[in-house]
Amino acid sequence: MAEFKIPQGKERFVKLLGLTVIGLLTLLVIFNGTSFSGSSSLSSGGAIKSGKYKVDEIKYPKYTGKKEKATFVTLARNSDLYSLLPAIKSVEDRFNHKFQYDWVFLNDEEFTEEFQRVTTSMVSGKTKYGLIPKEQWTFPPHIDKEKAAETRNQMKEDGIIYGDSIPYRFMCRYESGLFYRHPLMEDYDWYWRVEPDIKLYCDIDYDVFKFMKDYYKKYAFTFSIKEYVGTIKTLWDTTKEFMTAHPEHLAKNNMLDFISDDDGDTYNLCHFWSNFEIASLDLWRSKAYSDYFDWLDQAGGFFYERWGDAPVHSIAAALFLDRSEIHHFDSMGYYHPPFHQCPVDEDVRLNHKCDCNPKDDFTWKSYSCTTKFYTVNGMTKPKGWHLHAG
Ligand SMILES: Nc1nc2c(ncn2[C@@H]2O[C@H](COP(=O)(O)OP(=O)(O)O)[C@@H](O)[C@H]2O)c(=O)[nH]1
Ligand SMILES: [Mg+2]
C-alpha cells in the first residue's frame, strides 16, 4: 500500500494549522459555556418582576407556547406566608414552571414587603398583590350585628368549627361572591385557587386551563364531601326560594341529582371542596350567579349562620351549569388538611410520579361524595376504586 507523505516544508504549515483549529475550538467551547450559564437560556421577563422586586431569574426555559388568560389566586394573611410557601412550591414544581401562569394574591390588609418579596421569588409567572376594599370585608349594612353575634355565641357552644369567627365569615362571603370582582382579576378568564398547606402529589404534564377550555369545562374539583349541617341550616330553603323566583337561571341539563337525593326537596350536603377550584370566571360573572349571590347575601346567612363558599359555589355550579361542564381532576393527587387525594390506580401514580400513599385516598370513602358524582353522571370509576371505599 502506498504511504501518504506530506512533502517537507509543508509539514510545519499543517502543524500550525492544526494548532490554530484546536485553539479556535477551545475558545468557542469556553464562550458557549459562559453564555449558557448566563442569561440567554433562562426565563422569564428578566430579573424584575412585579414592578419593584428584584429576584434571581428562575431556572426554567421560558414557555413560549400559547397560554390561556388564566391565573392562580390565593387569599391570604401576611401570617400565612410560611405555610403558603410549600404549597406554591408544590404547584410550581408539579405544574406551573412548565407554563408560567400568573399568581394573584389578595388580602384584607396590605401585604408586607417580605410577603411580596418571598412569594415573588417562588412563582414562575408574574405576581400581583391586591388589597380588598374595606367595604367588602365587613358586615354589609343590612346585617343586624347583634343577631349575628348571637349566632356566633351559639355556634361556639355547639362546638362548630370557626363557629365564633368573624373573619372566617368575611372570608367565606368574599370567596363566594367578591374575589372575582377584584380589579386584578379582570385580566383573566380562568383561575386556579390555592390555599396554604396544600400539596400536589402528581406531575401535571398538560395545560389544565387549555384542557378546561378545549373540553368546555367551567368548574373543576378534586374533592367532594358533606357539609356540617349546623353551618347551613337555611341555605337550601333560601336556594329553593331563589329557584322559584328565577327559574330562567336553571340549566336544562343541570346536576341537581348530585346535591339532592329527593329531586330538590332537601339538600344532601354534598359539595366540592373549594380550597381547590379551577374554574371559569365567567361562571361567577354570569347574571345567574350574580342574582344568586345577591339573593343569599340579602338573606344574611353568611352571618346569621356560617354559610361556606364551598356549598354556595357547588350548589350554583350544579344548578346553573350543564352537568358536562363540571369536571373531576382524578389524577392530580392533592392534599388539604386533613384529606388526601391519591390516585388509586397504580399506572396513574407511576406515570405521574405521584408521591402519595393510595391507602390515604379519601375520594372513594363513604364521607366523600365523589362516588355519587361518578354514579349520577354514568362515569367509569378507576381501576381498584372499591378496594379504597369504606
Ligand atoms: N386575608 C385573609 N385571608 C384569610 C383570612 N382567613 C382565612 N383566609 C384565607 O382564606 C383561605 C381559607 O382559610 P383557611 O384558614 O384555609 O380555612 P379552611 O381551609 O376552611 O380551614 C386561606 O387561603 C386563608 O389564607 C383572613 O382573615 N384574612
Ligand atoms: Mg384551607
Automatic annotation (TrEMBL):
Its main location: membrane. The chain crosses the membrane at residues 12-31. It is a single-pass type II membrane protein. One of its GO terms (cellular component) is Golgi apparatus. Keywords: Glycosyltransferase, Membrane, Signal-anchor, Transferase, Transmembrane, Transmembrane helix. Pfam families: Glyco_transf_15 (PF01793). The keyword Membrane applies. GO terms for molecular function: alpha-1,2-mannosyltransferase activity. GO terms for biological process: cell wall mannoprotein biosynthetic process; protein N-linked glycosylation; protein O-linked glycosylation. It is found in: Membrane. The active site is at E277 (nucleophile). It comes from the Eukaryota. Belongs to the glycosyltransferase 15 family. This is Glycosyltransferase family 15 protein. The lineage of its organism: Eukaryota, Fungi, Dikarya, Ascomycota, Saccharomycotina. The gene is TDEL0F01390.
